[in-house]
Amino acid sequence: MTMGVHVYSGFERFWHWTQAALILFLALSGFEVHGSLTFLGFDQAVHYHRLAADAFIVLVAFAIFWHFTTGEWRQYVPTTRFLRAQVEYYVVGLFRGAPHPTRRTPLSKLNPLQKLVYLSLKILVIPVMVVSGLLYMFYRYPRPFGIEALNVSGLRAIAVVHTAGAFLLVAFVVAHVYLITTGRTLTSNLKAMITGDEEPA
Amino acid sequence: MRRGIFFLVLFGLTVVVAAGTLRSRQIPATPLEQLKQRFAHRHVPSVDHTKLAALQQPFESGRAVTAACLSCHTERGREVMASSHWNWTRQEYIPGRGIRTIGKRNILNNFCIGVSSNLEGCDSCHAGYGLVDSGFDFTDERNIDCLACHDNTNTYAKSRGGLPAVSVDLRHVAQHVGRPLRANCGTCHFFGGGGNNVKHGDLEQAQFEGDRSLDVHMGTDGANLQCVDCHTAENHRMLGKSYTLSSMNRNRVTCEQCHSGRPHGDDLLNQHTLEVACQTCHIPAYARANATKMTWDWSTAGQLRDGQPFEVKDDRGNLTYASIKGTFTWQRNVTPDYAWFDGTAGHYLLGDRVAASTPVAINTLYGSAGDPDAKILPVKIHRANQIYDPVTMLLVQPKLFAPQAGEGAFWKDFDWERAAAEGMKSVGLPFSGQYTFVRTEVTLPLNHMVAPKEQSLGCRQCHTRDGSRLAGVTGVYLPGRDRNETVDRLGAWALFGAIGLALLHGSARAVAARTRGRRS
Questions:
Q1: Which of chain B's residues have a Cβ under 8 Å away from the Cβ of A13?
Q2: Torsion of CA B249, B250, B255, B258, to 10 degrees
Q3: Which pLDDT score is estimated for B14?
Q4: Residues of chain A with C-beta less than 8 angstroms from the C-beta of B15
Q5: Are the Cβ atoms of B13 and A47 closer than 8 angstroms?
Q6: β-bridge partners, B361
Q7: Cβ contact, residue pair B506, A181, below 8 Å
Q8: What is the DSSP string of A107-175?
Q9: Nearest CB to A34: which of B20, B369, B483?
Q10: What pLDDT score was predicted for residue B27?
Q11: B-contacting residues of A 162-201, CB under 8 Å?
């Protein structure tokens, strides 16, 4: 038996799984606040949603630090190379038992489609959620003798943007969870994210 | 390694849960403790009135008592004569109308309609002696009725002409005066409109000796506060007024004057106080002991049995019909209506021409979302059907009360046309001779009958899609109640689309894999 290649560092996996747990929790509690489902009860949902949001922001801060100090941010530089091949693989090749068009190595963990989607999460969806979430938590209505610029006359725009982002994130999680089953075996990608090691082909 | 990651994630979540649980522990709000201490001190009077020489006489009249009071309290007469309890009017700036002199004396209400031409039936709640007609001398301080408010024996009563009832031992009462008690204020304010709890819904006789579950402030098993503990007075100018008679955002009693603007241990709740009045959550229902009048239809008044007026009561003893007043409906434990309110109000003023097509607003609470002064406030809306002149388009001030028949009072003669003519003459307005009845509405802010905190509203009573208490309050985004339909629809498509695609793609893969397996 040959040794696998170590692709996911300890921190990376901690970050991934904590983020996964937090997003799941934020989605459940958040959609309860939104009135879509019943989970903890409204007041508890609000309370814990805020706490999980605090935790999420701390985690994001550490993750950003990690990305820059390790240079891992380069993984997300988008490329069109093999992008078409990757799409064709999901649409056609996968059904014919064709091999993956790209290979995971420590230097290139993400396929071109992943690069594109994860980058847009990182620079678009997550920042929009964090900013709208912070505004949601710390907005204030107009009050006399205050600083005008800090006043928000209503929650509507903030809440609608935050909800739209939440739908995108949840849809992403569904697609993500499905697509990890398209590895060499159904569970090989999952195992890699748990152990950090890519099993040899 | 695998286990390490698992434990790290578990640890992270535990920290979040622990932090949440610890943070949700209520920190005792110190102002409340301070208030309990403050009101645990009972007021001890500095004067024993039984020892005063001026009060050792057999008083012939109320006016004689007042003279005795004024012999020591030399300046109090002028103070009372500057008050609304005495004048029944005051100068108010009404938005859009300018400065007007308004009050009980000249404003139409939604119950017994108005005091003009009916003073003899209303003067038992005037803080004076003899307000029977326009000849009353508002400048004679001996006309002040000190005892109505300051009797501490609960034996004082007013009768005809606003004079002390003959049964009252004036010397005994005069020797036992003090700060006004609930019994003093309640005698008038609990029975306005001609019966217990007719008007306000949150002020009624159960509060004389109620418990704290009915009224957390006045409950005898709780703080046992008197009205004047909140409605404080300086030189007989009391805080508080009713927005059926006043228009300006001044001189109000607020919860904040004792409880501060940040009364909760939880800051999320404190943030609500910017837009939501304390009363909204803390008065979950009004008329929680006895029923309050919800509608009053004057148009059915005047039916007689064998030529005599009669009354009908429901099985709980509420008057549902009276020949002199018409038909009523009552309700107990009523969920309030809610409205934006910025502290200013408008009024129907005598002589205002109004169309009869929509309900006539006897008063209007101003304010809207986005107005920094406006908060959401619980209100009682009382609806009536009142006499109206379709030719002049004026609400009619009818003459209702007279000591005997033949003077044109509706309560004696049951003749609307004559009652309208007499009443309108008394206020100097025309009456065409024709009358009909129009729908009218009055909006009464709810401030009393604050429930213990355990009974206050939970989040879900407003933050819910269906059946939100604030369903009618617009202009504000309420999480849980409101949503953007388009975003929700697109979002659901995205979510279920992703699930559907995954299922479709997955089953296609399974089929393809099996096909390949068979082939090989």
A1: 5
A2: 150
A3: 79
A4: 55
A5: no
A6: B441
A7: yes
A8: TB-S-HHHHHHHHHIIIIIHHHHHHHHHHHHH-B---TTS-GGGB-S-SHHHHHHHHHHHHHHHHHHHH
A9: B483
A10: 54
A11: 163-164, 166-168, 170-172, 174-175, 177-178, 181-182, 194-196
For residue A200, pLDDT beyond 80: no
Q: Give me the CATH number covering residue A67.
A: 1.20.950.20
* Max Cα distance, chain B (Å): 123
Look-up: residue for tokens 């009669």? B310
Residue type, B312: V
Distance CA B350, CA B108 (A): 7
Q: Which amino acid type is present at position B263? A: P
What is the greatest pairwise CA distance in chain A? Answer: 73
Residue pointed to by tokens 């209520």 = B26
Instruction: For residue B13, count CB atoms less than 10 angstroms from its CB and return exposed for 0-12, middle for 13-18, buried for 19 or more.
Output: middle
pLDDT tens digits along A59-92: 999 999 999 999 989 889 888 888 888 888 988 8
Check CB contact of B510 with chain A, cutoff 8 Å: no
Give the strand pairing for B233-234 and B237-238: antiparallel
Q: Do B502 and A174 touch (CB under 8 A)?
A: yes
Question: Is some CB atom of chain A closer than 8 A to the CB atom of B317?
Answer: no
Nearest CA in chain B to A142: B372
When scoring A26, A62, A95, A173 by the number of chain B Cβ atoms within 10 A, the one with the most, hence best to mutate, is A95
DSSP, res A186 = T
Q: Using CB atoms, which residue from A42, A154, A166 is nearest to B476?
A: A154
Helices vs. strands in chain B: H and E counts, helices first: 16, 15
Q: What residue type is assigned to position B58 of the chain? A: P
Triad B406, B409, B415: Cα angle to 5°: 85
Separation CA A16–CA B327 (nearest Å): 70
Give CA B470 to chain center in angstroms. Answer: 18
CA of B466: which chain A residue's CA is closest? Answer: A35
Q: Are B62 and B170 in contact (CB under 8 A)?
A: yes
- The percent of residues in chain A predicted with pLDDT above 70, rounded, is 91
- A63/chain B closest Cα distance in angstroms: 15
pLDDT bracket for residue B472 (50, 70, 90): very high
Q: What is the ipTM of this complex?
A: 0.89
Q: Do B464 and A35 touch (CB under 8 A)?
A: yes
In this predicted model, what pLDDT tens digit does every residue of B212-225 receive, in sequence order? 999 999 999 999 99
Q: How far is CA A8 from the centre of its chain?
A: 16
Domain of A146 in residue numbering reads as 5-198
Mean pLDDT, range B346-357, rounded to an integer: 95
C-alpha distances in Å from residue B487, one per residue of A132, A133, A161: 15, 17, 9
The number of distinct structural domains making up chain A is 1
Judge whether B99 is closer than 8 Å to chain A, CB to CB: no
Distance, CA of A129 to chain centre: 11
Which residue in B5, B8, B270 has the most chain A C-beta atoms within 10 A of its own C-beta, making it the best mutation to test that interface? B5
Chain A closest CA to B198's CA: distance in Å?
37
A19 touches chain B (CB under 8 A): no
